Q: What sequence folds into this?
């Protein structure tokens, strides 16, 4: 099985059509099932475009695609989404789900179904919710990226998704205590929360203990915030 994620969390990478074709070719050549995590598929910033790997020749019958209402509609606490794929895969997943969680909250399922039905007629128009959302989030992304750069935190500007990485290696921050064995991004994030009023997520948390140093120089920040929160964050950067 090949597990892929596009747009990619935490970097925000959106795979191009050519890159997706290469991944599809690998799956076919090695007879792999592809589990495609596409929970940010409607949060792709212009001019980038999302391509579903199941749409490539020879991939539908070997692909399970995962979507998320929590990510798309900003209701992450609902923990509800969908899976698309050929009947044998879906039937097997239903059997497992039936014998683990058994059922999911019916009102939330109905709410999601009605929301999708209302949105579908506008999917390919300028009035589409997802098209408007990506434009709004791209503006928030750019404002936060500029604020990060203003204090020496160089942003890894995402092509899609909820998050942005910031390189902290050139920022004058806290000194590591001699007996503090935690990754530096954890130390920096704690210092930033206490002294600057801004909270990120240490990237080292995405690695196992042996490789946590790969995340030492980065924090992950969420760009999906309401305007008032964005303004407060920008003010914190101005006072840095």
A:
């Amino acid at each position: 099985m090949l597990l892929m994620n596009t747009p990619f969390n935490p970097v925000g990478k959106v795979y191009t059509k050519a890159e997706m074709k290469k991944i599809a070719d690998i799956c076919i050549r090695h007879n792999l099932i592809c589990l495609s995590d596409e929970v940010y598929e409607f949060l792709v910033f212009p001019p980038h475009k999302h391509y579903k790997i199941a749409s490539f020749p020879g991939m539908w019958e070997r692909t399970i695609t995962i979507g998320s209402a929590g990510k798309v509609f900003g209701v992450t606490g609902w923990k509800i989404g969908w899976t698309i794929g050929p009947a044998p895969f879906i039937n097997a997943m239903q059997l497992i789900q039936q014998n683990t969680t058994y059922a999911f909250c019916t009102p939330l399922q109905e709410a999601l179904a009605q929301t999708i039905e209302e949105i579908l007629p506008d999917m390919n128009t300028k009035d589409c919710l997802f098209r408007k959302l990506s434009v709004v989030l791209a503006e928030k992304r750019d404002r936060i990226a500029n604020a990060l750069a203003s204090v020496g935190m160089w942003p890894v500007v995402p092509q899609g998704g909820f998050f942005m990485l910031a390189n902290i290696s050139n920022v004058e921050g806290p000194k590591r205590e001699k007996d503090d064995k935690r990754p530096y991004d954890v130390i920096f994030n704690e210092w930033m929360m206490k002294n600057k009023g801004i909270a990120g997520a240490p990237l080292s948390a995405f690695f196992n203990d042996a490789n946590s140093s790969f995340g030492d120089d980065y924090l992950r920040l969420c760009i999906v915030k309401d305007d008032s929160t964005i303004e407060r964050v920008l003010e914190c950067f101005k006072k840095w």
In short: The chain has a mean pLDDT of 94.
